[in-house]
Design brief:
Elements (H helix, E strand, L loop, with lengths): L1 E5 L4 H11 L3 E4 L17 H16 L3 E10 L6 E2 L12 H11 L7 E12 L2 E13 L15 E3 L11 H5 L3 H17 L7
The protein binds inosinic acid (IMP).
Inosinic acid (IMP) binds next to β3 and α3.
């Protein structure tokens, strides 16, 4: 089976992307590849952070690889937390504290519109390709559901009527920003695989 290294240790992300890609390519995380590294996300755009992560892993391993960076962009907060979503409540990456801060900043605010945006950076045979996926929705007044990760308990995609954290992986995939970006990645990989083999 062909393998593709995913520059993350977030197993939720690996599962979501593996589901999109199917069984023809095995997605492996940094941990599964025996790579112990915490890649910085110092830039002010999702694109630059995703590029930094894939470039770092490519330099280290020489393997075909991809990374992704995701942000929650809230209309009433002028797009914040955006690229700062992971550390919104400070260093420490606590999902609970990030949600608390978000709900606090939106207290009394009737405009709850928000969107998730994912950028994937793929490095294939040394060349970079970028893919984007967006999911529009809104922020709840309080968390609902215990599945998923991150801001899932407070995010309701348009038309869904319930939060990402109340959905199975398959349901979340039918709306997900990450799935939309991954679908483009998959289409691109399929178009390439007839011309050149992936890392095995
Ligand atoms: P990063 O891409 O891992 O830097 O994620 C940025 C922040 O957004 C983190 O706090 C994640 O937990 C959160 N996040 C990323 N993707 C999702 C998602 O699909 N649902 C909910 N939160 C997410």
């Amino acid at each position: 089976m062909n393998r593709l290294l995913f520059a993350t240790n977030n197993q939720h992300k690996v599962d979501e992307i593996q589901n999109a890609i199917g069984r023809s390519i095995e997605v492996i995380s940094l941990r599964q590849a025996g790579i112990d590294i915490d890649i910085p996300e110092p830039h002010d755009t999702l694109e630059a952070n995703a590029s930094e992560k894939s470039a770092t892993i490519y330099r280290l391993t020489g393997m075909n690889c991809f990374s992704e960076d995701t942000g929650l962009e809230v209309a009433a907060l002028q797009g914040e937390p955006g690229v700062h979503s992971a550390r919104y409540a400070g260093e420490g990456r606590s999902f609970g504290k990030n949600i608390e801060k978000l709900l606090h900043n939106l207290e009394g605010c009737r405009d709850r519109r928000a969107r998730f945006r994912t950028v994937i950076s793929l490095i294939l045979e040394g060349k970079e390709y970028l893919f984007e996926g967006i999911c529009e929705g809104s922020i709840l007044d309080k968390p609902a559901g215990d599945k998923g990760f991150g801001y899932d308990p407070v995010f309701v995609p348009f038309g869904a009527g319930r939060s990402f954290a109340e959905m199975t992986l398959a349901e979340k995939a039918s709306y997900s920003h990450r799935r939309k970006a991954a679908d483009q990645l998959v289409a691109f990989l399929r178009s390439q695989s007839t011309h050149q083999p992936l890392q095995s």
